[in-house]
Amino acid sequence: MFENAHRRRNFANPCTSREQIGVGPYMSGNMQETIITNVALWRGKNAEIEPNMSIRVRGDRIADVAPAGDLQPSVNEKVVDGQGTTAIPGMIDAHVHLTTNSDYSKVVDNSMYRALVPGTEKLLHGVRNGLRALAAGFTTLRVMGHRESGDVELASMIDRGLLPGPRLLVAPWVISMTGGRGDLFYPAALPRQPLDTADGVEECRKLVRLQRKLGAGFIKVTASAGYLSADDKVHWPNYTVDELKVIVSEAHDYDLKVAAHAHSPEGIKRALLAGVDTIEHGTNITDELIQMMVDQGAYLVPTLAIGDSIARRGSKSGVPAQGLEKMQGDNDSSGQYVRRAKDAGVKIVMGTDSSGNLCEFGEHARELELYVKLGMSPAEALLTTTSVAAEALGMEDEIGTVETGKYADIVLVNGNPLNDIGLLNREGGLRAVFKSGIDVTNPWPAIF
After folding, report:
1. Among 189, 246, 268, 313, which is least packed by CB within 10 angstroms?
2. Nearest C-alpha neighbor of 300 from the set 258, 348, 257
3. How far apart are CA 275 and CA 246, in angstroms?
4. Is residue 272 a contact partner of residue 240, using CB atoms and an 8 Å limit?
5. How far apart are CA 222 and CA 175, in angstroms?
6. Is this structure's pTM higher than 0.85?
7. Residue 248, class by beta-carbon neighbours within 10 Å (0-12 exposed, 13-18 middle, 19+ buried)?
């Protein structure tokens, strides 16, 4: 599909206008009208399924949603018969590392990949990973970017319709202190660059400003050590409360939300005291900190899928022995902390931590299966990847539900995922994926 569309465009003609070059099948301004009819509809708000519904798509937006008999197609409208499917909103993965290894036939050490692979190659891996996510029904990704890997530029190209891919909200790079979790992902002998670390209040302030200048859609900061970074201990905090407060204050001044990587209780506490918007991972959270999250309205992005993937794949995931030992030690791999947080009223947002061999792109819905195993209903699990995720990203007016005026991000599931969440991660489970009104069910066959 992509290659054929590319061949039809006359890039060799020097008289081709800029407007002509910009118009293609992935442009969000495409004005084709489509009616998706005869579907059961889950709008993304509660546990209700509405039978025999139709959705009219005009351009990149949903123009109308009504019972099938009330929406009659015009002669110019394309009709998609969804008989036997459930239409759900395009899904959101709120924690991915897009420009990581996409060649899953080769096991690559994560830290060596980050340190030694050129940014141009990382960008091309990111294109492939994004297409895998899109074909899996994930039309929006929140990207924990890698510096100089083109994540921001790729997001722009997709927004302009020049490349197929999911909608991307990007943090250009993680804000890490010297010797902190982000810094320790790189070999100690590798020279550091100015964006790699920030120490002290003023350096933290400046780094937020630099990331905003680079096109940040949000800010990511490390508030604790991690399981996969070398030579640190998970209970160590990163950054003082004052340093975190200036990061949050500076970001919020420019309408940027802040995501805090935090496993340890002290790291989570400092991040919450600073006013971050989302806690990423939160593995060792206490009941006291859960209550702080409820009181502040902070969201939890558990990322259980990466631990599940590493446990299933072991050394084949590329995790070094030290990382595997740490994960098998004090990590709450069962995810019971997520159950405690949800029961207390914390809003859970779906995120997988998809990252190369560690947690492969295209398997995102595995996270939802793990939530259901913890006791969530399928509808509750789906809310974490639709309306609740959109709210956490500050995009609830644009995505997350099937409603008039929102982007036409729609997934047709063969069967009813509210009865069987596994449909979303099963071969043949999805019949069609629409992103911004465009059928992207098989966006680039050559990669699969």
Report:
1. 189
2. 348
3. 10
4. no
5. 6
6. yes
7. buried
User: Are 261 and 232 within 8 A, CB to CB?
Assistant: no
Tell me which of 3.20.20.140, 1.10.10.10, 3.30.70.580, 3.40.710.10 is the CATH number of domain 91-393: 3.20.20.140
Residue 17 main-chain phi, psi, to 5 deg: -75, 160
Q: What are the DSSP calls for 381-442, one per residue?
A: HHHHTTHHHHHHHT-TTTSSS--TTSB--EEEEES-TTT-GGGGGSTT-EEEEEETTEE-SS
What single-letter amino acid sits at 334?
S
Domain 2-89+401-447: CATH architecture, name and number where available: Roll (2.30)
Domain boundaries, the chain: 2-89+401-447, 91-393
pLDDT one digit per residue (tens) for the chain, 448 residues = 333 333 222 223 333 332 333 334 454 445 579 999 999 999 999 999 999 999 999 999 999 999 998 998 888 899 999 999 999 999 999 999 999 999 988 888 777 787 789 999 999 999 999 999 999 999 999 999 988 899 999 999 999 999 999 999 999 999 999 988 888 877 777 778 878 899 999 999 999 999 999 999 999 999 998 777 666 778 889 999 999 999 999 999 999 999 999 999 999 999 999 999 999 999 999 999 999 999 999 999 999 999 898 888 766 666 665 555 655 554 455 689 999 999 999 999 999 999 988 999 999 999 999 999 999 999 999 999 999 999 999 999 999 999 999 999 999 999 999 999 999 999 999 999 999 999 999 876 544 4
* Residue 79, SS3 per DSSP: strand
